[in-house]
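> call design_seq(struct)
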């Protein structure tokens, strides 16, 4: 795969980085990335990944744009209120980089969407509900596709990366209790708009590192960001031998027909 002259100019700041360069930029161009959730986290993550030159971005969200979203969901404007988020996001990103193939999906991720994950090189979990998070984690584990997961509420954010197939790292399910329930939400507790930008940008950075092979991704680690204190700490994430997803044998979706 080669870059056009327009792409060489557009991605010039990547091309001079020894960690990315031409091979890394071509890897970004060849990559297929699924972003589940086009809201506070998914919007900034999608902006930076589209700008970085990801070849194909699939945007999945079943919601519509609301006026209260605009405080943090930076892909949207007032004119987008009432529109499907996935489709409005794809239109906005298409105006920013015509070299990216954009595939909007207006639906929620659930157990029926597992085949979609098989076609991806990487998945970003930018959702706001445990049901989708757990289904997405199980699908990524079974398909052997890396997963980057972010969360933000109030002034607090967190970020982790998982590559759990074959026992390489913990999975997201290792972090949550056996009977995970929906907790307090941004709607009830609030969230600082800029915080979602911080976490979403970090999700995009992790994705770029994983795709290009640059640096050390957050595999097996959890980054916790305290926006009020301006501090960040990183915790190790051990695998849970009793995890119902990665603790035992799981079917490999790559052996199945879609």
């Amino acid at each position: 795969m080669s870059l056009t002259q327009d792409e060489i100019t557009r991605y010039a700041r990547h091309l001079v980085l020894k960690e990315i360069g031409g091979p890394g930029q071509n890897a970004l161009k060849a990559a297929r990335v699924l972003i589940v959730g086009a809201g506070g986290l998914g919007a900034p993550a999608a902006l930076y990944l589209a700008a970085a030159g990801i070849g194909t971005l699939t945007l999945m969200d079943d919601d519509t744009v609301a006026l209260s979203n605009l405080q943090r969901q930076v892909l949207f404007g007032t004119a987008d209120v009432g529109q499907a988020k996935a489709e409005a996001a794809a239109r906005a990103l298409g105006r920013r980089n015509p070299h990216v193939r954009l595939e909007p999906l207006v639906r929620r991720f659930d157990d029926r969407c597992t085949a979609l994950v098989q076609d991806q090189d990487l998945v970003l979990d930018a959702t706001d509900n445990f049901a989708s998070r757990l289904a997405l984690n199980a699908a990524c584990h079974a398909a052997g596709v890396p997963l980057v997961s972010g969360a933000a509420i109030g002034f607090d954010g967190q970020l982790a990366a998982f590559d759990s197939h074959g026992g390489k790292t913990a999975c997201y399910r290792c972090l949550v209790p056996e009977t995970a329930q929906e907790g307090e939400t941004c709607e009830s507790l609030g969230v600082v708009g800029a915080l979602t930008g911080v976490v979403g940008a970090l999700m995009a950075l992790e994705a770029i590192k994983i795709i290009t092979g640059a640096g050390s991704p957050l595999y097996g680690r959890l980054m916790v960001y305290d926006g009020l204190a301006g501090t960040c700490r990183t915790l190790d994430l051990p695998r849970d031998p009793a995890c119902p997803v990665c603790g035992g044998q799981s079917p490999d979706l790559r052996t199945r027909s879609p």
